[in-house]
Amino acid sequence: MKRAATVIGSGPNGLSAAIVLAQAGWDVVVREASLSIGGGIRSAELTLPGFVHDVCSAVHPMAFSSPFFSKLQLQTHGLNWVWSPAALAHPLDDGTAITLERRLDETTRQFLQDSTSYKALFKSLVKKWRTLVQEILRPQPYVPKHPFLLAHFGLGAIQPATRIANNHFRDLRARALWAGVAAHSILKLEAPLSSAFGLIMGASAHAVGWPIPRGGTQNIANALSSVLNSLGGRIVTGSRVGSLDELGGQDATLCDVTPRQLLALARGRLPNGFRRSLERYQYGPGVFKVDWALREPIPWKAKECRRAATIHLGGSLEEIARSECDAWEGRPPHRPFVLLCQPSLFDPSRAPAGHHTAWAYCHVPNGWPDCALPDIEAQVERFAPGFRDCVLATATRNTKQMEESNENLIGGDIAGGAPTFRQFFFRPTWRQYRTPLKGVYLCSSSTPPGASVHGMCGYWAAKWVLADSKKSRF
User: Fold this and answer.
1) What is the pLDDT of residues 283-309, one digit of tens each?
2) b vs e for 326-347, b when ≥16 Cβ sit within 10 Å of the residue's Cβ?
3) Which of the 8 DSSP states describes residue 412?
4) In this structure, what CATH number is given to the domain that contains residue 463?
């Protein structure tokens, strides 16, 4: 008789967990509260008909690098990738921009004096990127297969991004570029581990680029769904699970939710100690997001910005650090660090002929209820005068609306929880994805190896389910 499992949530981790179990011959059903699948990997016409916008995530180096996704041959299920000539452009107030190029030499050529330091920081990580990804996308703790490579990464990753900048870079352009990639951490740049994200984002750009899915991020979810369907798995949308008590008769339940939702699903069944650890779980800053339908491309002052799908708007390291600190300390944005994507420059399927789309967000205090649109557009205008004249329509989402669109985004937190030093190593799932409830597992980005679209949280949780089933723990 087949073992049966229910997966709650159809984000990339929920779908990955379902695929692993279906590959092992389990009867798997995914229950999704929304009417569309994907969680953070959805696309929709948010502004005007024919303009396709990514609802949450847009640029996916870790999805392209994912050890699990790479085994699924997602291209045969309709997923195709698009690369811009440069991964990233970071415009500056002098009307120029520094670009993050695929080749290390082409990037460092733009620095006045930090070429050697930049290469020393990234060269081995880029050269051994596939091996590094295998190491960093594993559960914690574990015995590394490549300890020297991981030690090289870890010695830099554990440091605050500002320390790396002060120790390695004197050129203001290099410092600005580094600050922008490190700010993907959604941490203060003075915080431990903020450098980890800078190293990962920078190395991925040089190793594989920062690709976007042709036609929209939804196509990642659609491809994963196609794989699951081919294995006999099922997805039921519009099917909210209000309590774990609804799911009797399952051998395993895997929850692609954050700790706060798990508390609600458990309905008082959790032991006090574990319940308190979930209640203590910390969420990080939220985001304010905006999508634009455009009559023409953004009129960047720096021509280099037309070569990159991703643009970082924040000026200097000091300005970016101040913006990220404000989000953590509860201050509303003034000159926010803005992450912007202009996919239609490289993927014409995103908009009607001759028109364009753009997507942007900034970090704001968790649960901040107000509107950051004027501040975001001011930052775009700062580097692209006349931008507002290009706008046909706008769609915005504050932190509350982000959470309403995806219940995992608590207070607008897109990372599944704050990636602080303590929380990174001491998550509530120290039981390796198990909970104290028999057959119930957590498989979201709140579990190791953490945020980003790579599916590995779901992959490892499902592997743990399979190991437990062989030990007759059900």
Assistant:
1) 999 999 999 999 999 999 999 999 999
2) bbbeeeebebbbbbbbbbbbbb
3) G
4) 3.50.50.60
